[in-house]
# Entry
Amino acid sequence: MPQSSTVPPVFAGLQPAAVWAHFATLCRIPRASKHEAALRAELLAWAHERGLAAEVDAAGNLLVRKPATAGREHAPDVVLQAHLDMVCQKNSDSAHDFLRDPIVPVLEDGWLLAEKTTLGADNGIGVALILAVLDSRDIAHGPIDALLTVDEEAGMGGARGLAQGVLRGRLMLNLDTEEWGEFYLGCAGGLDVNVERPGRPDAMPDGYQGWQIALNGLRGGHSGVDIHEGRGNAIKLLVRVLRRLESDFPLRLAELRGGTARNALPREAAASFALPRGMGDSLAVAVAELQAQLRSELQGIEDELVLAVSPCMPDSLLMPDEQALWLASLHAAPHGVRSMSRQVPGVVETSNNLGMVNLGPAGGSCNFMVRSLRDSCSLALADEIASLWALGGTAAVKDGYYPGWAPNPVSALLKVCQAVYKRDFAADSSVQVIHAGLECGIIGAKYPGLDIVSFGPTIRGAHAPGERVEVASVARCWQLLTAILAELR
# Structure
């Protein structure tokens, strides 16, 4: 791990220095989901250099154990948990390669951010906090199991593969939430619905010309945390545009592509198609009108929305019946909030994100990510989506189900966390349930009775370019984490 002399200048002077030094390492080493091996190997070597017991399990998770500090040997074992991978999203004008290039953060008005990519503060700050605890020699704590999981953002594969009987602790602090001053005691569960359908390419008709429409400029964001804000979904909006154009033009679709992550609101989408020659001017007028209409509907939410038309040369087209089926099904498919919770006011209960589509003349696929605080409701909505596609004879596979994390209102760990927060920050904290998938539900199911609380710093724009973390809140998280560990006796 880097020493302070090798930490990039952007981190100079940030406190606590140990936490930021570890986060600098996470920025330096690429860590896309399913590509965490290089980072994990460096952390494993780092732990062994410090004499810490460390191992990689069959699922690829890194487990590091640190003994209690002197005099705290009889304190309860505590599991500190975060995930190594990050969501990889970038603007279309960025050449960043998430498998090779380091993240380049900048400091702006008290926030650390990445300008054209995701930053990876989700969940890199949580990992950095845990590594700083493992590295420390001057904070009091009982025995610690640090569980750093892999593949969280692409299906929670690390948590799913965690074996029973590995963790010693009966208390767990998950450091993967994004609002300082809140303790989380529950989260949504969910599953994916993956649609795939083969196609038959059709030749470009004589006298036709190729065009492309690109929809850009949307905010994107986290498909759970931000789903209630009414942000635009580039796929749904572009499908709506295409359906409207179909009614006015003899449009023949060639491709439709949009979204790059199942758990991110799609920011960009593009479609190529063919029209009879000589219709370009009319197309430009129609698209300008549609852009104005969408901007008006999304005023104050998606003011940067752009529909851009340009010529292209498609090699082949979808068959007309395939075009009709795909556009009608995508247009009818649900997206967004399905219901709000009656038990937890102000929290989304059930939602769905149409996150990716990849359609061409030879066939296509799309992905829906369904979330709910009620497992029965996520399964019901997934069934509804699968039923929609079945009407057209299209296969839809439900996959990756994970349970929600049911709140435990009598959590003893929560009481300690709340008391420490009020003592050290002279304010009351709040208790929340988050409409996002945390690993707590999966881990808790494998370890019944595990008392779990989650907290973290203030992060904005997770899962979208421009993601940022409030620097001061990271220092407060460090203070809170170390105080909680010292309080547990």
